[in-house]
Amino acid sequence: MASESLGCCTIVKGKIGIATVLYNSGEVLAEFLASLRSQTYTNFVVYVVDNASVDNSAEQCSLAGDRFIVTINKRNTGFAYGTNQGIRQALEDGCEYVLLLNNDVAFEADFLDRFVKGMERTAADIGAPLTFYYDRPNIIWAAGGRFQRWAGYRPLHLGMEQQYSAEFAQDRLIQFSPGSGLMAHRRVFERIGFLDETFFTYWEDTDFSVRALKAGLRSYLIPKARLWHKVSSLTGMNSEFQRFYAVRNHALYIAKHCGPLEATLLHGIYLTAYRLIGLLRLRTDERVAFWKKGIEIARTAGYK
Asked: Where are the beta strands (DSSP E) in the chain?
């Protein structure tokens, strides 16, 4: 196994550290673990961080084999913090690549092999797999993404809701990878740091990708690496948890990445829109309070 010395540790060529965070994930783990055990590529370790689950999530991973290193937190520290725990372990263990991977996904036996070859072929700093909806296996959820700069770096999934075609068969330069399956060379973390734990969960991967873009790092879609995502299987698209963090962190994200005047304008637009929706529904829209909370946290964090 080829390796090279790099200061504090020995970097193992091609070694992947997979960071995944559990939070009562038991119902989706069987297929995730089966996908990992089927891999033809064997130069990888899975760093599992359990955020105080009350089900058998951690136990399932502990019994999955020696390739799985499980850390159990005493409380729910959030997706960003938990992922950072896994990233740090991977870097300390000499992994050349770190793969941020949701556990509500499934993938084929050659997934890691194709992903690493694509990263090497493109010399990518960050790579995104071609991701499909799990329940609509030929319909694309994300072929990477791009940012709408005029809308405060609003992220857009490329190819979303489109059926797979030859258009998506080639490696291509993109602006970001969703955090459900994001592979980064270790130099990315050395350059821009880790996930911002202020976000707790939601928007932390988008923030990471904006920072990478601003730093001049290159992201590629690696379409031969394919992922099937059980979108929102754990939190639910309409849960209060999802709504709070999605809205709060959008406000935080805008405050962090836009100039003061632009951020003020965008905050005003969103708050006005939510207030108008509340008037039409004859009740206060909860998103007004969620957005204001994001602005408050941004100020506390020093994000303008």
From this structure: 3-6, 9-22, 44-51, 68-73, 95-101, 105-107, 126-133, 140-142, 145-148, 154-157, 172-174, 181-185, 219-229
Q: Is 268 exposed, middle or buried (0-12, 13-18, 19+ CB in 10 A)?
A: exposed
Query: Minimal CA–CA distance to 303: which of 233, 238, 256, 244?
Result: 256
Taking the C-alpha atoms of residue 184 and residue 172, their distance in angstroms, rounded to an integer, is 16
Single-letter residue type at 56: N
Q: Tens-of-pLDDT digits for all 304 residues of the chain? A: 444 444 568 999 999 999 999 999 999 999 999 999 999 999 999 999 999 999 999 999 999 999 999 999 999 999 999 999 999 999 999 999 999 999 999 999 999 999 999 999 999 999 999 999 999 999 999 999 999 999 999 999 999 999 999 999 999 999 999 999 999 999 999 999 999 999 999 999 999 999 999 999 999 999 999 999 998 655 455 688 889 999 999 999 999 999 999 999 999 999 999 999 999 999 999 999 999 999 999 999 999 6
User: In angstroms, what CA-CA distances link 302 with 12, 59, 61, 63?
Assistant: 38, 40, 38, 43
Backbone dihedral angles phi then psi of residue 90, each to the nearest 5 degrees = -65, -45
